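Q: Protein A?
A:
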Amino acid sequence: MSKQTFLQGALILVAAGLFTRVLGFINRIVVARVMGAEGVGLYMMALPTLILAMTITQFGLPVAISKRVSEADAVGDEKKIKRVLLVSLAVTGSLSIIFTVGMFFLSPVVAKYFLTDSRALYPLLAVTPIIPIIAISSVIRGYFQGRQNMKPQAMSQVIEQIVRIGAVIILTKLFMPYGVQYAAAGAMASVVLGEFISLLYMMRQFKMQKRFRLRKTWKNHIAEGRKTLNELMTIALPTTGSRFIGSLTYFFEPILVAQSLAIAGLAAAEATKQYGELTGYVLPLLFLPTFLTHALSVSLVPSISEAGAKGHSQTIQYRILQSIRLSLASGGVITVVFMIFPVVILSTVYGTSNGAFMLQFMAPFFLLHYIQTPLQASLQALDLAKPAMWNTLIGAVIKFAVLFTLSSKPEFGIQGVAAAISFGVVIVTLLHMAVLMKHKVIVFPVLLFTKFGAIMAVTGYLGYTMKQYIDLDSLTHLFIVGTALTIIYFILLFAFKLLTKEEWNMIPWNRILHKK
């Protein structure tokens, strides 16, 4: 089984993440164009319930499995690795059964009384079978991460998105004549099918690459698994706390939005449509650069944990600042494009300019979101998961308070929701940074942020100037302007040393060109 270094593993996940993000974006376009804003709203209203159930089912174990497997692998303890896997499967398997049954019976209540739209029942029921699938795949994924082999996970992401896109095209068009709620259910069913095929691939890779027989003496390992369970829970519980708060926030967000917009005087169908424009049109665009931040976060946990065990504080600081630098670099140019050309972007992608102001407003705030995930991974790796959990809770409370205050007023409406999401992002990211500074892990990177601000200012000025002289009604002109800004942006990144030659050389250009 091949291992990768921190940047090698991250780059594998970046490549897969970029490809799957593009495919996922195509999936969103198909869904939006087939079902419209109202269908997307039903789809997005059901999604937080799924995320909440999945978070509880996984119980934070992927991170814990990754760390414990990595530690056992370092000393060649295959028996402990086997015990970690069996105990994890027992926990996630039991929880998945409970929450699958619970979600099936509670879906009518959630749809009618919480989401205020009984049509959300159909996508909720359609996506329920995904819970046990995610339970098993999360354990296998944690195993491969602990072995520092990111290739199976990367390939499974690609397979999942390809299957999902193919299924969503067929199922949404097949069910759309019966009603938008059935089309939304078809879109959810495509998610389940994609995850299932991805799981089959992961299981095949696990069977080929594992170094032990999982079935042999499994009862003994379960019986002796109390100590292993305790070791996993010391990591999993605080990690679950943060994710549970995030998922709970995600679950209650559409409920609070629906109630707040109702107070503001909007009918249920109109509220669903506006929420669909925000969550189905604007947020997917803003989340595009996060494939890099996720990749960095996955690679950061074992890298920082190893450096901490060896007492290499300078390595820890370098890795954290490197992740901040690369995360900002990945999101800078697309943020400029969103701020200057929101109408053109939305019209080109979705065929409508609805949500242009929200995209333009939220884009700069999401630069902090891009560094939030690596910061949280750093806190978990440094045994500071508990402060990270409290930061997430504080951000969620403030976000909900702002959301209800603004979106319940007719003059704000859905724009109040956009403001609340942005404010929550800023609060949590700054709190994560404050914890790292308090524990003297890093100092506030004033020079880094100053350089990045200068790069953004120059790129933004040039983009605004181009907008004045170039007609951007066509996709070709938008592509030309975007390419020119990207080239300028990368030149500035190298000039200000926010991207180094060594990091650039980590990309296997010769292999890529040779394949072409």
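Q: Protein B?
A:
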Amino acid sequence: MKILNKTSIIIATAAVLSSATSCKKILDEQPRAQLYPEYFTTAGGVQAAVTGVYNDLRGTFSGEGIVYAYNGTDENIPGGSAGTVAPLFNSFNGINSSNGPDITGLYVDINTLNGVFQYATAITDATARTQFVAQAKFLRAFIYFYLVQTYGGTTATQKSGIPLHSTYITSASTADAPAPLADIYAFIIKDLTEAAAELPNTITSTNPFSAGGVGKTATAAVANAYLAKVYLTRGYSEVKQAGDFQKAADLTAALINNKGTYGLDLWQDYMDVHKPANDYGKENMFCIDYGGASDPQYTGYTLQGSGGYGLNQLYVLARMNYVGPGIDNIAGIDGVPQRLTTKSGMFRDVYNGRPYVRLAPNVRYTMNVAFANQVSDSRYDATFQTFWICNTNVAAGTKSDGSLKDKLIPTSSPSTSAYIKPIDGDTAILMPSVDVTMARRDAFKGLIVTPKQFNNVIFPTVKKFDDPKRNATGDFSSRPIAMMRFSEVYLMNAEANYMLGNVSTAADMLNIIRRRSAYRTPDDAQNVAKNAISVTASSMASVNAANAAAMVLNSTQLAQLAIPNNTSNPASLCGMDLILDEYTREFYGDPRRWYDLVRTQQLVRRNKMYNTNGGPNVQDYHARWPIPQNLINNVLSGPKYPQNNGY
């Protein structure tokens, strides 16, 4: 979402307008920028509003507060530095209206977009007006979809949810009420349908929402992908309509069949999906953009700062504190949990990054189930950092009998001012995928940690968000956050066809993604631990062919895929489990898992299957987070704003 019009950005970046705050219709009399309702009567004001909303999305999806999308799922547990709130979401114990996620500030953006529709005629150029209105329709639908997934709407069994505001608010009011879920979905579908018909097929240099053709703002394909996701989500809900799953299947099939029209495709190598050079490539469809570290005026953050607007903090959330583990093999080093010492072979440098330790993988599911196959499937190696090269002069470690190991040789190029990949040096920390003998531990100069020893302090780090443009140890990332990838279109098609009973088509879609994951190159081997599988120029073709064949769903898996969605029995697997496992392998680390489980009605069951802390406490009502207390408190006229069931 690189915005070309920097003047509009400066004007509109923060508050955009003196408009509604949270879900209440209360006028903000102190706008953060000089952009008042009167400004909307100009073409520049309308344009500034749309670009301003794009900027505003950065604050919603970038910070560590987004951890509620990870905790309370099968994939993650709170990291060792998660604080006190995250464990509540993981355990489903103590969540309330004061500590739940509050993203209702997005109603500021909704009101801004409503103003766009009211004053769009100020743009006299018909082509430009169509572009801005289409972007505004997509953005309003995108925001409402995110809100309704989080909080819901009123139904026969649910008394609360979010309000629906479709007109520009300029006068203060202290009354508001939740809207019917059916009305909210109909509203979203209408916006996305119209946006898809009006948006361009690709990002071009003439697009006012890109910088010379770079960026990933909404296109017709993006609008149709989200429209498919909305139909898919509604299809499971209390307000489902006949044809929802079929519409999701048809829309995603059309995107796949016409991918060339939209400039979309899958990378042959999954390793390429997350390379910075491909952030704006053919597989990332829609991104929240951060402008680049060299553009502080646009990104609005201070390097090495711990605060500021629009920080992309995803790369730090699931990052282990690699400075902490020692290298001595003391008694109990192979115990569970592993005993650690303070003789570290690491210090914090730019390459290894800034550890926040807010999230850790849930070994019971993530390692033991989703990423159990790390030979045929490359996605574990592409997602996780499993070795750290010594970057400091440290005394030789001790063996289990007290004698000395060989001394670690540090890399010759550690840096606290540049992102420099180590090209030499010994491995200080290694995380192989299997248990090892004590003899191997003693022969290894550094520390070996095996999967049974992973916990919320020491674990494989998510590396796919690493930013090589960082130039200080405290820097956050300027890379975009991908909200929709083309591989998700295939998985949504598989999910929709599975729910329709079209097992063969669902399997075909899954197999495309699975076969892609088998591909490896010799260059990829430089980014994985030496004990893991790798290929050479001579072995690449035969190894990739064998692995691709191994990744095709076998007869047992096809039989499981034919079992209808089981939403209650943790002891019995079904086809949805296969699909959700693929979502994990493709998107682990993206802020989405809670939403995937809620959509598929698997939140309760999958937590009971894999979440040791949350499984005993999770209830059906946890599929919607509590209405924030500040919203309830600020509705002072008419009926009191109701809380979601269970809270």
